[in-house]
Amino acid sequence: MARRSIMKKGKIDGLPKFGGKNIVMVVVDRLSKHAHFITLAHLFSTFSVAHAFLDNIYNLHGVPCSIVSNRDKVFLSTFWKELF
Question: One MF term in GO for this entry (predicted)?
Answer without folding.
Answer: nucleic acid binding
